[in-house]
Amino acid sequence: MDDDRSPVISITAWFDPVIDDSGYDPRSTYVETFWLGVLGPTATWLIRRLAAGLDRHPDGYRIDLRHLAREMGLSYSAQRASPFAKALNRCVMFGVAHPTADGLAVRRRIPPVAVRHLRRMTRHLQVAHDDWDETHIAADALTRAHRLAIAMVDVGDDVAIIESQLVALGVPRATASAAADNAAQLAAAS
């Protein structure tokens, strides 16, 4: 990645079963709200672009960094002080990508912001982050919670306790409530 003459690298998915199940899409409101101030705007746009490429090419792809930088309104330089190189380095430094032998492995799901980063945020963002799990229901999290709730109903669990069981499994309360309500309605209809 440090050679101006060879700016084509491979982008592959970074598989992490824990984060892949519980993380956030790089293009999500969560990442825009809470990771933007950590990664910086250029690195945030960069990780979004790289993840979008993995949506089109799940097995990985090669990308010309010079073209990518130009598409993002930046000039390409392998010098560490260039904005594009800084954005690449920030993606690695904050754990949303990591170097491979011929490029980068990129997270398709971004982990929750670490406590050390939350402490540096404005009080407004800290409060918003604290409220996030209680008020925000992500579609994929709801799908997973719904599957769990239906499995609980299928094995004979009382629908009245499904919400608390989901919360005990780590499902955010708002998501657990929606999934449990839906499972109860489906159980009543059958």
- The succession of helices and strands, N to C, reads EHHHEHHEEHHHHH
Low-confidence stretches: none
> Number of DSSP helices?
10
Task: Calculate Rg over CA atoms.
Answer: 20 Å
Strand content: 5-15%
What percent of residues adopt helix (DSSP H or I)? 55-70%
Q: Average pLDDT value?
A: 89
- Structural class assignment: alpha+beta
Major sheet attributes: 4 strands, mixed
Shape designation: elongated
Distance between the termini: 58 Å
Give the number of domains.
Answer: 2
Characteristics of this structure?
190 residues, alpha+beta, 10 helices
Question: Can you describe this structure?
Answer:
57% of the residues lie in helices and 11% in strands. The protein is an alpha+beta fold. It has two domains: 8-134, no CATH class; 137-189. It has a four-stranded mixed sheet. Strand 3 (97-100) and strand 4 form a beta hairpin. Helix 2 crosses helix 3 and helix 9 runs antiparallel to helix 10 (173-189). The radius of gyration is 20 Å and the shape is elongated. The termini are far apart.
